[in-house]
Design a protein that fits this description.
- This protein is an alpha+beta fold.
- 51% of the residues lie in helices and 14% in strands.
- The chain folds into 2 domains: 87 residues, no CATH class; 134 residues, Cytidine Deaminase, domain 2, CATH 3.40.140.
- It has 10 helices and 5 strands, in the order αααααααββαβαββα.
- It is elongated and about 75 Å long.
Length: 239
C-alpha cells in the first residue's frame, strides 16, 4: 500500500468513527458496521472491500458475527489478527447481557431472557436446549447447554435435567431452546417434552418457571401464555 493509499484508508476510517461518535450506528450500512469492526485490529489497510466480501458470503450482519474464525479467515482480506473486532463485540454483548440476566429477576421478564438468549442462540443451524438454574431466591446461579439436536422425546432426558439441577443446587429452573426455522411457535413435541420435564422436576421439588422458545427476532413464552401454570397444575393432580 502506498503512502497516499494509507492516508486515504486512515481518513476513511476516521470519518466512520466520527459518524459513530456523533450518532451511533444510525445511517450505517451493515457492511460499514463490519468495516468498522475490522478497523479495530487493522492499523492501516482499507477494510471496505473485505467487509463487503464478508457480507456477500454470509448474507447478513448477524451471520457475519456468528461465523467461525475459520470461515471468516476464508474471506479475502480477513485474517486471524483483524477478525478480533468481529468476534470480540458479540462476546462482550453476550457477557453484558448475561450480567443483566443475573442482576434482574428473569422469571418475571421474558423479554430480558430473550435479549440474552438471542445473542447466543440466533443463527444456530441445530436446536440447542439450555437450562437456567436459580437458587431459592430466584437468582441465576448457572446457565448450561444440556442437549443439541432435534428437540424430541428421545433426545431430552428428564433425569439428566434433574441431575444437573441437583448438581447446581437449584431450587428452580428455566428452560430455553431455539427453532432454526425462525418460527417460535411450540410444536406438539415441544409441549410433550415440557410436560415431562415439569413432572420430573416436581418429583424433586424443583420449580419450573419458564420455557422460552427462541425464533428469528421473536420468541414464545410458556409462562406468559399460561401453559407453565396449566402443565404444573396437571402434574400436581395426576394420579
Amino acid at each position: 500500500m502506498s503512502r497516499n493509499d494509507s492516508h486515504g484508508a486512515a481518513g476513511h476510517r476516521g470519518r466512520l468513527r466520527d459518524r459513530f461518535r456523533r450518532s451511533g450506528l444510525d445511517g450505517f450500512h451493515d457492511y460499514e458496521v463490519v468495516e468498522l469492526l475490522l478497523t479495530l485490529a487493522t492499523p492501516r489497510k482499507d477494510c471496505k472491500r473485505s467487509a463487503k466480501a464478508a457480507m456477500a458470503r454470509f448474507g447478513s450482519l448477524p451471520a457475519v458475527l456468528e461465523a467461525s474464525p475459520r470461515e471468516l479467515c476464508e474471506v479475502d482480506g480477513i485474517g486471524p489478527r483483524n477478525l478480533l473486532g468481529i468476534k470480540l463485540i458479540p462476546a462482550v454483548c453476550e457477557r453484558y447481557l448475561a450480567h443483566k440476566v443475573h442482576d434482574q429477576l428473569p422469571l418475571n421478564n421474558s423479554q430480558v431472557l430473550f435479549d440474552y438468549l438471542y445473542q447466543s442462540m440466533r443463527e444456530k443451524k441445530r436446536e440447542q436446549f439450555k437450562v437456567i438454574f436459580l437458587d431459592a431466591r430466584n437468582r441465576v446461579t448457572a446457565i448450561k447447554t444440556l442437549f443439541e439436536g432435534s428437540l424430541t422425546g428421545s433426545s431430552i432426558y428428564p433425569r439428566e435435567v434433574v441431575r444437573a439441577a441437583l448438581d447446581s443446587h437449584a431450587a428452580a429452573v428455566i428452560f430455553a431452546h431455539n427453532h432454526p426455522s425462525g418460527d417460535p411457535q411450540p410444536s406438539p413435541e415441544d409441549n410433550a417434552v415440557t410436560r415431562r420435564l415439569i413432572q420430573a422436576c416436581l418429583l424433586m421439588d424443583i420449580t419450573v418457571h419458564e420455557h422460552i422458545v427462541i425464533g428469528n427476532g421473536t420468541y414464545f413464552s410458556y409462562a406468559d401464555s399460561g401453559l407453565i401454570r396449566q402443565m404444573r397444575r396437571e402434574a400436581q393432580t395426576a394420579p
